[in-house]
Specification:
The protein has 330 residues and is an alpha/beta fold. The chain has 9 helices and 18 strands. The strands form 5 sheets. The protein has an 8-stranded mixed beta sheet. Strands 15-16-17-18 form a 4-stranded parallel beta sheet, sandwiched between helices. Helix 5 links the parallel strand 15 and strand 16. The N and C termini lie far apart (43 Å).
Length: 330
């Protein structure tokens, strides 16, 4: 029986580093083929092929990296049974969301993984995470996932919650798509493999702004943001979408200028509800778009993506408030 063919796309991060035993410094590995040495048993299980896209720290990732990853997967899509993207953990949530929107209609998994410690650290998480990610890429799952440890998480809902080897990432409001234990438990809510037409649209508008409300926020700072003429804004409000009334005239100015503004919650598992209080219904009348229960990272990336998909305001609002890849409850 032929071994499953898995493509491993290397972007960067701690997992692609190693500890120099002589100097004690953490250094980049010389070649991706070095990873083979740490996965000898797994190579009897799968046929791995390595693609080196870049070698950047997580904090250096931009939308250009998202485009390159998506286009590489599209070029080699028919040649592999699954894809693993090796990536730094700090911006992994953004990349996972970006690939979720850029690669719609998947019929096989795209799995992001990384590590907090170098792969040759015997007590680290690098080897374990790679093994679980490569095995997840063989499962009956057809969506973008994040795998650090034995849980397979929906990519557009994954969020880094801790600098912990045991539970670096978690998902909001839904359980894992799969879990490895003595066997494998697959969640019924996962998107399964079946014949679909891949739709690759890796386009993102990076000229967007984010605002986190806090007590004492000054209007002059908001005006400075608006003067930069952003193409869209994500605002992190309190609780279910609450904000002070002195902001209403500014919001009216924003939407009057045709700048879409998406409201998310500062709570980790919160949900924006613009119908709950009278003040919030006024926001909707202004044209503020509800981010519902999307994570901040997902809402920002979806805004960047949706801005490139349509120039029609009603169509844009529909894209933002409708679940496209399981990113929100409708």
């Amino acid at each position: 029986m032929a071994r499953p063919k898995i493509a491993l796309l290397y972007v960067g991060g701690s997992i692609g580093m190693k500890m120099n035993r002589k100097t004690g410094r953490i250094e980049p590995i010389e070649s991706l083929n070095e990873i083979h040495r740490f996965l000898p048993e797994l190579q009897r299980e799968v046929a791995l092929k390595f693609f080196s896209l870049s070698n950047v720290g997580s904090s250096e990732v931009t939308q250009k990296d998202w485009v390159e990853i998506a286009q590489t997967i599209e070029r080699h899509y028919d040649d592999f049974d699954g894809f693993v993207v090796v990536h730094g953990t700090n911006t992994m949530s953004y990349t996972a969301a970006a690939l979720s929107f850029a690669l719609q209609g998947l019929s096989k998994p795209v799995v992001l993984t990384g590590a907090l410690l170098p792969i040759n650290d015997i007590s680290g998480d690098g080897r374990m995470n790679l093994v679980y990610a490569i095995r997840a890429a063989q499962l009956d799952i057809a969506e973008v996932c994040v795998v650090l440890g034995p849980r397979v998480l929906r990519g557009c809902r994954a969020k880094k919650v801790d600098q912990s080897l045991l539970q670096t990432f978690d998902t909001t409001r839904i359980p894992p798509l799969a879990e490895f234990n003595e066997g494998v438990h697959l969640g019924e809510h996962r998107c399964v493999r079946r014949k679909r037409q891949l739709l690759c649209r890796p386009t993102f508008d990076s000229h967007v702004a984010t605002i986190t409300l806090h007590p004492g926020l000054e209007l002059a700072l908001l005006d400075a943001i608006l003067s930069s003429k952003p193409h869209g804004i994500v605002m992190r409000a309190y609780g279910p979408g609450m904000l002070p009334e002195w902001l209403f005239p500014w919001l009216r100015r924003v939407t009057a200028q045709g700048v879409p503004i998406v409201m998310t919650s500062q709570t980790i598992r919160g949900k924006v509800d613009l119908h709950r209080f009278r003040k919030q219904t006024t926001l909707e009348q202004f044209g503020v778009i509800s981010g519902k229960d999307m994570t901040f990272e997902c809402a920002l990336v979806k805004l960047m993506w949706a801005l490139t998909q349509t120039q029609n305001g009603h169509r844009f609002r529909e894209l933002m408030e409708r679940s496209l890849v399981g990113e929100l409850e409708e």
